[in-house]
Amino acid sequence: MSEERAFEGVWISASLWLDKSLTMQEKVMLVEIKSLSANPVRGCFKSNKAFAEFFGVSTSRVSQILTSLEEKGYINLRHKREGKRVVERNIFLSEMHSKNQPDLFRKPKGGYLENLNNPVRNPKGGYLGFLKERNTLLSNTVENNTIGTNPELPEVDPIDSEFEQLWKSYPKRAGGNPKGEALKVYRKQRKSHPLEEFQSGLERYRRYCEQSGKIGTEFVMQAKRFFGAGKHWREEYSRPANNQQGVGNENRNSGAGNRLQQQQNQINAAFARASAREAAPGPVETHGAAVWPQVDVPVRAV
User: Fold this and answer.
1) Name one Pfam family in it (predicted).
2) What Rg do the C-alpha atoms of the chain give, in angstroms?
3) Distance between CA atoms of 147 and 246, rounded to whole angstroms?
4) Helix (H) or strand (E) holding 32
5) Does residue 36 contact residue 5 with C-beta atoms inside 8 Å?
6) Residue in 196, 184, 194, 166 with CA at minimum distance from that of residue 224
7) Can you give the pTM of this predicted structure?
8) What values do phi and psi take at 217, rounded to 5?
9) What are phi and psi of 33, to 5 degrees?
10) How far is it, in rounded angstroms, from Cα 16 to Cα 38?
11) How far is CA 202 from CA 100, 184, 213, in A?
């Protein structure tokens, strides 16, 4: 699929370049999204796979960057669906940031000539002209430049939005935890259960995982099971009884020690009875017949 770009060269404004809340990858991702936002209705619809090939990173890293930009308010993600299937993902630059930082993606007057065959500096204006213009923009005459934003954005699926908030609170798990499958079962269960029920259930489960030390391990339940037909979000998830377990261990240890002591006492008693039989001049009463002591009989000389 050909890329429809609003491409006039690589430009990163001072506001974006000096924004300490963004990583370098996030900054260049914003520039790339801007260059692909020529269509105000569709915005940027480049896939994660295409982004990954362009930047030389993994698709999971692209997903992390886009999620971070959305959480920071720089972009809006919209999904076009046919039934339950997502057929297109659209990215729009945030209108809020375009208004608050009008020079975020705006070229200065002058600067570099946009001639790819002869990329030389424009002697008229240049950076000095841009600084004067930027100060004017920031002081009084804020120009509303919303290129790449769509004033009539498609409606956000409320199920997607609330699931995103639940997903952020879900305990981290070692191993697989497919988000798409979890969303699918959540969407099904959400038809007959209120959002508050899932929120309170997830809060209980997260607290339980923290107290039992399961966070970040494979013992955290997969989200698709938690939100699934088993309705695990409705369970109580009581606090682990660590103290009771400790008492049980003490009792078991104490019982084992008592048994060892009893065996030692029996052995000592047996030795005492044997010593008594050797020292006694007459028969020694035992549990059975009388036992006569051993007596040395002198041998008659022949």
Assistant:
1) HTH_36
2) 39
3) 64
4) helix 24-35
5) yes
6) 184
7) 0.36
8) -115, 170
9) -60, -40
10) 20
11) 36, 17, 16
